[in-house]
Amino acid sequence: MTSDESKRPLSRLVPGGKRAARSKLRRRLSAAVRLVAALTLVGGLYSAYAPGVGRAEETPTLSAAAERGKAIYEQSCITCHGRNAQGVEDRGPSLIGVGSAAVEFQVNTGRMPLARQEAQAERKQPQLTEQQAADLGAYIQELGGGPQLPSAESLDEQVRKATEDSKTLAHGGELYRVNCSSCHAFSTGGGALSSGKFAPSLQHSTNRDIYAAMLTGPQNMPVFGNNQLSPDDKAAIIAYIQDLNKNEATDPGGWSIGRYGPVPEGIVVFLVGIALLVFATLWIAGKS
Question: What's the gap between Cα 150 and its chain centre?
Answer without folding.
Answer: 14
